Amino acid sequence: MTGRLRVLAVDDEPPALDELLYLLRNDPRVEYVHSAADAAEALRVLHESEVDVAFLDIRMPGLDGMDLARVLQRFARSPAIVFVTAYDDRAADAFDLGVVDYVRKPVRAERIAESLRRVLSERAAVGERAAAAPEAAPTGDPMIPVELGGVVRLLPRSSVCWVEAQGDYARLHTTEGSHLVRVSLTQLEERWTDAGFLRIHRSYLVRLDLVTELRLTGSGYVVTVEGRQLPVARRHTRALKDRLIRPAKQHWH
Predict the structure, then answer these.
(1) 64's torsion region: left (phi>0), alpha (psi -120 to 50) or beta?
(2) Cβ–Cβ contacts within 10 Å for residue 88, how many?
(3) How far apart are CA 76 and CA 238, in angstroms?
(4) Phi-psi region of 77 (alpha: psi -120 to 50; beta: other; left: phi over 0)
(5) Is this model's pTM higher than 0.90 or not?
(6) Residue 154: CB atoms within 10 Å
(7) Are 199 and 189 in contact (CB under 8 A)?
(8) Mind listing the pLDDT tens digit for each residue in 213-252?
């Protein structure tokens, strides 16, 4: 592995692809760039060449960028993924794909430069973790695309303290603020249970390791998460105690 990046750029619109190729080839951190006009051509390229990062348009004929990203994740050495799109309506769909960045068109040199910086930073972090614990199983911290002031940024799941249902959306609460994403609380419950999150109410999903208090009040139980009290529905109380209190008691004894 060299210190510079081997890149694949995929877009079915020639002007957009040419602009992306120009910006990538003019960045000193890029070793070389392959290009493809669709997913089928991209897979032919990858059959012959290994790349470190794939810049993918999302809306393409045949396999779209999301489909292609899922295929690339099955590779023995899967490249980092950066989506480059004119739309923000697929940001929530990128939840489980572990994308490094989500860039809105028209692309700008400084925005592509930031994507490359993130790719290199992530690659360095992976290398450090592998060197520190070569026998340990890899652990992931999925990045969640959220929109803030018209800009899509990536929020690590580990920064989420609790989640609040808001219709077909969910509001992710962190220590620094909150973000509304287009995904249901039920979907997050299914995806995040193994990561230590638990449904405690029809409207709340909490990160268990941040719960500092479980209290019985006149109207039922409440938990305290980062200084905020959240209600616990009666039907979720037993599961909460099983996941929260019993392991703590067993560890203490």
Answers:
(1) beta
(2) 15
(3) 42
(4) beta
(5) no
(6) 16
(7) yes
(8) 999 999 899 999 999 999 999 999 999 998 887 665 555 5
